[in-house]
Amino acid sequence: MQVVVHEGEPRRSGRSPELCWVRVDGVHGTLRCSAAPQAGKPPVEREVPVYTGILLNAPHALAHTREGDRLLFMHAPGMPAALRIDELYLEERPAWIYSACDACGADQSLDAPSIMAKTRFPDVREGALPIMFTAFCVCGGTMVLALAEEMDPEPPARVAKRPWWKLW
Fold it and tell me: Whole-angstrom Cα distance, residue 160 to residue 152?
């Protein structure tokens, strides 16, 4: 099957994603993730199967991805094909609510949220994460990533309590 293969967001990696052929050879597990379909509506939580496979063709412009590499990938609504992910993405994605891309509706990204945050906020101290930021989608649209409230059950007193599902 075809998979969107990449080496992270183009703004970080300097390389565009490519559609490549992958032979599916197993199920790695599932990814629990939340996405807000439209602004102001509660996010939908779902479990998405994560597959493993072997890359069948050599990418043209990717520097660190080779024919024969073993990949993890999943279905991502709005994407032209399944999306390559990695272990860090699997670890971090459940803690974030993604607002679907305003152009294509995709609710997944090319990098783990911590890597995207470092790209956008390089001067923030190590280990600190923003509670919300925007990201460009593969299609060129924009999505909003918000840290789920479960990650910080005791917000500072100056932060107004908001419903867990509201991004703003």
Answer: 13
Report the alpha-carbon distance of residue 66 to residue 59 in Å, rounded. 7
Cα angle 141, 146, 149 (rounded to 5 degrees) comes to: 165
Give the torsion sign (CA, 115, 117, 120, 125). negative
Query: What token pair was written down for 144?
Result: 């909003």
**Residue given tokens 């470092």 in the structure block:** 118
| Run of H or E residues at 119 | helix 113-120
> In sequence order, what E strands does the chain have?
2-5, 18-36, 44-55, 70-74, 82-85, 96-99, 132-136, 142-147
pLDDT in tens, 9-53: 888 888 889 999 999 999 999 999 998 876 666 788 899 999 999
Rounded-to-integer distance, Cα 63 and Cα 110, Å: 16
Per DSSP, helices labelled H in 2-58 are 10-13
Enter the tokens of residue 134: 């925007």
Q: What is the pTM of this model?
A: 0.83
Per-residue pLDDT of 119-138, as tens digits, reads 888 888 887 888 899 988 88
- Is residue 70 within 8 A of residue 5, CB to CB? The reply is no
CA-nearest of 69, 48, 87 to 5 is 69
